[in-house]
Amino acid sequence: MAFEKIAIVAARGEAAQAALAALQARYPHVSEREADVIVALGGDGFMLETLHAHMTRGVPIYGMNRGTVGFLMNEYREDGLLERLNAASSVKLNPLKMRARSVRGTVVEAYAVNEVSLLRETRQAAKLIITVDGVQRIPELICDGILLSTPAGSTAYNLSAHGPILPLNASVLALTPISAFRPRRWRGALLDRTARVEIDILESDKRPVSAVADMTEVRDVSKVKIRCDRKMAMNLLFDPDQHLSERILKEQFLVA
After folding, report:
1. Considering only 48-62, 137-151, 208-222, 239-253, which range has the smallest mean pLDDT?
2. Are 1 and 60 in contact (CB under 8 A)?
3. Catalytic residue numbers?
4. Domains of the chain as residue ranges with CATH
């Protein structure tokens, strides 16, 4: 790749803002709208914000960690930015598309890079019906919630909920329950990325549930439909020695 127009953006944190000032003073830069590559300074949360802001453009995004976790980011260095950009490897990510209907009939559509999660809103457990590709798989799941994760998001909330880590190039999604009570031994499922998942909320007036697609939350939902949007692709850039697929693989061998 040969990038000519670089935009540099940063999270609001002190470290990210200091890095923004240093890089903008050192390298020619343009606005985000003009850029053919965007350098994002911050943590994973800011990377998700940047991906969502430019999701329909497909502009490559190269992150450098000036936040906390930085799983989706490269190591921060001021030197050699242009060389690193041009040598970077590209990762294509297809987001999940959520269509959530509230009990009031409002319909909200949103995209998720990591996962779509459903969570109980009160002290009472949620009761959910799980349908995959038109076939009802669980008539009543009693739980704190459930999530559908992409491979890129499988090391995030999905992993915390004891879901499987998925290789980046795996054509599957992880459907993972959150504190399932009944069926007690159900631990989730691996679904083909073409799967269409529907979740209906039982007793939604008594047991309200919210649906969250990355940063978009819909309260008091009655039905949620989720699928992978393979027509939309986001482009992340990584240094060859810090490729996302290798990071995900390493997560499977962490013992501490």
Report:
1. 239-253
2. yes
3. 44
4. 6-93+233-251 (3.40.50.10330), 96-228 (2.60.200.30)
- Provide the 8-state DSSP code for 121: -
Res 256 pLDDT > 60: no
Q: What is the pLDDT of residues 178-199, one digit of tens each?
A: 999 999 889 999 999 999 999 9
- Positive or negative, the CA dihedral 211, 213, 218, 224 is negative
Centroid of chain to Cα 106: 24
Reduced to 3 states, what is the DSSP secondary structure of residue 221?
A: strand
Helix (H, G, I), strand (E, B) or coil at 146: strand
The order of strands in the sheet holding 196-202 is 107-112, 96-102, 221-228, 196-202, 126-132, 135-143
State how far the Cα of 170 lies from the Cα of 156, in Å rounded to an integer. Answer: 16
Bridge partners (DSSP) listed for residue 97: 111, 227
Please report, in angstroms and rounded to a whole number, the separation of the first and last CA atoms in the chain.
Answer: 38
Q: Which candidate, 173, 165, 189, 170, places its Cα nearest to that of 252?
A: 165
131-145 pLDDT, tens digit each? 999 999 999 999 999
C-alpha R_g of the chain = 19
- CA-based nearest residue to 199, from 212, 186, 216, 184: 212
Element housing 47 (H / E): helix 44-53
Classify residue 178 as exposed, middle or buried by CB count within 10 Å of its CB (0-12, 13-18, 19+): buried
Q: Look at residue 108 and tell me whether its pLDDT is greater than 70.
A: yes
Residue 253 phi/psi, 5-degree rounding, is: -115, 10
Is 0.70 topped by the overall pTM? yes
Element (H, E) at 160: helix 157-160
Q: Which residue, 162, 144, 165, is CA-closest to 154?
A: 165
Q: How far apart are CA 223 and CA 107, in angstroms?
A: 10
